[in-house]
Amino acid sequence: MDYKILLPESEIPKRWYNVLPDLPQPLSPPLHPGTHQPIGPEALTAIFPMGLIEQEVSPKNWIDIPEPVLDIYRLYRPTPLVRARRLEAAIGTKARIYYKNESLSPAGSHKPNTAIAQAYFNKKEGVRRMTTETGAGQWGTALAFACRMFGLACTVYMVRCSYEQKPYRGIMIRAYGAEVFASPSDKTVFGRKMLAEDPTCSGSLGVAISEAIEDAATHDDTKYSLGSVLNHVLLHQTVTGLETKAQLKLAGEKADVVIGCVGGGSNFAGIMLPFVPNKLAGEKIRFLAIEPEACPTLTRGEYRYDFGDVACSTPLLKMYTLGHGFFPPPIHAGGLRYHGDAPILCHLVHHGLVEAKAYHQTEVFESARLFLETEGFLAAPETAHAIKGAIDEAKNAPEGKVIVFLYSGHGLLDLGAYDAYLRGDLSDFSYPDEKIKECLQACPVVKAG
Ligand SMILES: Cc1ncc(COP(=O)(O)O)c(C=O)c1O
């Protein structure tokens, strides 16, 4: 009758799982934005260290986690897998619901799993400063923490609407010793251009990415870091899925469905990818991605090549996209406001291995409230999407169905969002199809894509 399934520190995974060699078909390569030809690793060296570029394209199934990374992981890993018995009782379900609690990391989310690894590989190659974007502020906090652990400077471009909605995230980032600017900012050429066009621009992850890349590309001692989407980020996040597999085994359970919220795809991929070989071997296991109706990338986007940022400075990635110029409305799940998604995740959705579902923010906050009232934890608005997905799966579930979801972060610095919800001030946004079509028209036309 345990609530928590715990692993000893000695069972922190020593290797990350790389799904690339196991994919049923090869992943479409990133393309040069000008020539539309596949790019090699050398094209990425201006902004990423070689250690991470090698991981991005590695054909190996398993990649050793360096000891200094494990050493920082030990601050909070392994995280508990928790049986949500009180939530089950409140729903009246016959299913068993488990959640993997990544909110217990120093930064309060799953993000340090990759931030620590990225800071380590940058430090190893002599980088002095890292730049990044952040939506909700969780990623910026995680990278600021990781840079502090390895003695690196850190600059964070935070999407303006989140910067204003969540001042405490900015303070936490600064407390770790990093600098943080509201994006669009006057610190970059691209930011100044955006502000000149619209001084009230609320920003987007795509804009903040452009600013962070420009900053890194124009400073020799600086590299850029992305908190989601890329293969190496998903790779680092597989520590959560590997631990979950070991914990389910301890509990004598087999997952029937694995659920996560999706912004760029890293937390969901982290818990789900290590189960892909089971599915390919014929096990009946479902993977369910949950996204906001206000940014419905997987459910209403197109699968095609697009830029990762608004300035069109990144390589083209084959993914579900709403168009790189898509400005999602300022919903409270700031970390889910991204026009694209991880190519690995999109590939799995496209090939029918992963299902996707979208919800409105009001119903999502209602689920977070039920979780708070039963399990006691206040979830990040992003995480609340996964909770809603799990609750819906549990309703009318057959006896004994095992539902596992990733609890990606706490909402202790999202109280403004909860205040709006409790006062009844949340509104739901749905994008008209014509608006999505209009944004998609700006996507590059790639013959092979
Ligand atoms: C708590 C939390 N969950 C989920 C996400 C979504 O990102 P990803 O899909 O890469 O896990 C974010 C992003 O900022 C986040 O802060």
Please provide a written account of the structure.
By secondary structure, this protein is α/β, with parallel strands linked by helices. The chain has a domain at 4-9 and 63-108 and 231-440: Rossmann fold (3-Layer(aba) Sandwich). It is built from 18 helices and 15 strands. It has helices at 50-56, 67-73, 85-91, 112-124, 138-150, 160-165, 167-175, 189-197, 205-217, 231-251, 266-272, 276-280, 297-300, 343-350, 361-375, 381-394, 415-422, 433-440; strands at 4-5, 15-17, 62-64, 81-83, 96-101, 129-134, 153-159, 179-183, 222-224, 257-261, 286-292, 302-307, 316-321, 355-359, 402-407. A seven-stranded mixed sheet has the order 1-4-5-15-10-11-14, sandwiched between helices. The chain has a four-stranded parallel sheet with strand order 8-7-6-9, with helices on both faces. Strands 2-3 form a two-stranded antiparallel ribbon. β12 and β13 form a beta hairpin. α1 (50-56) crosses α10, α4 packs parallel to α5 (138-150) and α8 (189-197) packs antiparallel against α9 (205-217). The model has no long low-confidence stretch (mean pLDDT 95). Pyridoxal-5'-phosphate (PLP) is lined by residues 109, 135-136, 138-139, 228, 261-267, 335-336, 380, 382-383, 408-409.
Which SSEs are present, and which pair or pack?
Elements: E1 4-5, E2 15-17, H1 50-56, E3 62-64, H2 67-73, E4 81-83, H3 85-91, E5 96-101, H4 112-124, E6 129-134, H5 138-150, E7 153-159, H6 160-165, H7 167-175, E8 179-183, H8 189-197, H9 205-217, E9 222-224, H10 231-251, E10 257-261, H11 266-272, H12 276-280, E11 286-292, H13 297-300, E12 302-307, E13 316-321, H14 343-350, E14 355-359, H15 361-375, H16 381-394, E15 402-407, H17 415-422, H18 433-440
Helix pairs in contact: 1-10, 2-4, 3-15, 4-5, 4-10, 5-7, 8-9, 10-11, 15-16
The chain binds pyridoxal-5'-phosphate (PLP).
